[in-house]
Amino acid sequence: MSLDAATRWRLILGEAAESACAGAGCRLGGQAAAMDRALDWLYGRDAGGEERGVRRQGGREGSALTVPGWINEVHTLFPRETIERLERDAIELYAIDDVVTNPEVLARVEPNETLLKAVLRTKHLMAPEILVMASKLVQEVVRRLMETLARDLAVAFAGVLDRRRHTRLPGARDLDLNRTIRDNLRHYDPERKRITVERLHFFARNRRQMRPWQVILLVDQSGSMLDSVIHASVMAACLWRLPGIETHLIAFDTAVVDLTRDCDDACELLMKVQLGGGTDIGGALAYAADTITAPERAIVVVISDFYEGASEAVLVARVRALSGQRTRVLGLAALDSQAQPDYDRAMARRLVEAGAEIAAMTPGELAGWLAQVVRG
Question: What is the pLDDT of residues 5-45, one digit of tens each?
């Protein structure tokens, strides 16, 4: 977002400059207003700011932001160099250390995705003993995410229901309700109008032996893609446990980092992610292409906002080459519980023309899509 000079001065000076800036035609709205609230949350608390060179005067009203919420806000609103300054000021000047330096607070917070994102964004600021505690928080949030996704994967990759055969193995989705009622009618109680079920019947499932598939997840490490990075790491850990699936997880910005060795530990994966930097999607695709052993049984999932920082022509050519060898290429503009994408639509259209499929999915939807492809 580009700001005019009057808006920049208004953000620097705070609410005290409201009347002067309004006279110059500057009124904060939208993203600029959100920036002002985030700045006020930090610098508005400082009565002695002038002595330390921090001259911004805060607003009159308190903010409802929490520390994790504020961390996530500034990472959304400001450029990288400003984020680093804000985080440093928060910790060094104002001792706002609830998440990144205070073990007592960290020990009693309720693990959730907001805290997880705040930890991942500030882990480079943490002392070693605090990082150990933060890792436990990450583990708990990841465990909860994996429980949900593991169920989605189990459903997606389960065999096809065979109504001609039955099994003794119970499964709620496989219940043969008609036969169960019919065989238990003799236990019907007319007064209470209830059937006592003594035996359940379940349909069997056909489970075909799958030939091995490669699933290569390429994850953009841009700060804006953090939600997708979290869910991609959890997805990789869950896929790693499936028979017949060879999973690779590759993180990229302008460089490529192969995290496949840690695929069995989603927490370890996340703690190794380095957020920020540029974007070279074409370079990541070149690395994926070299990883493929059987092109017709490979799936490349690119999780990115598709704002390419390197050559766009090279990116399109590499997608076309992968599609030409009958490798499936899926581009995900978002992979999270909301699946609300913000991406370069013009580039997405070019990639579709080159043979890719572009979508925004929840992890459960991605599991279903992968299962469809693998089953043929």
Answer: 777 767 666 666 666 565 555 666 677 788 888 888 878 76
User: What average pLDDT does the structure give for the chain?
Assistant: 79
39-47 own/partner pairs: CB under 8 Å, 24+ apart: 39/11, 39/14, 39/86, 40/14, 40/15, 41/65, 41/70, 42/70, 42/86, 42/89, 42/90, 42/94, 42/96, 43/14, 43/89, 44/14, 45/94, 46/93, 46/94
For residue 248, the model assigns a pLDDT of 93
Q: Give long-range contacts, CB 8 A cutoff, 24+ apart: 175-179.
A: 175/200, 175/201, 175/202, 175/203, 176/201, 176/202, 176/203
The β-bridge partners of 185 are: none
What is the reported pLDDT for 195? 83
Q: Are 334 and 363 in contact (CB under 8 A)?
A: no
Extract the tokens encoding 85: 């300054």
Spatial contact of 102 and 122, defined as CB atoms under 8 Å apart: no
Phi-psi region of 126 (alpha: psi -120 to 50; beta: other; left: phi over 0): beta
Contact 183, 199 (CB under 8 A): yes
Q: Indicate whether 271 pLDDT > 70.
A: yes
Structural domain boundaries in the chain: 5-134, 168-206, 213-375
| Full-model pTM | 0.66
Q: What's the fold here for domain 213-375? A: Rossmann fold (3.40.50)
For the segment 299-318, what is each residue's pLDDT rounded down to a tens digit? 999 999 999 999 999 999 99
d(CA 170, CA 14): 64
Q: Among 120, 133, 53, which Cα is nearest to 85's? A: 53
- Going by C-alpha positions, the residue among 74, 72, 78 that lies closest to residue 112 is 72
Rounded distance between C-alpha atoms, residue 94 and residue 171, angstroms = 55
Give pLDDT tens digits for 342-351.
Answer: 889 999 999 9
Query: Which of 111, 359, 146 lies closest to 269 in space, CA to CA?
Result: 146
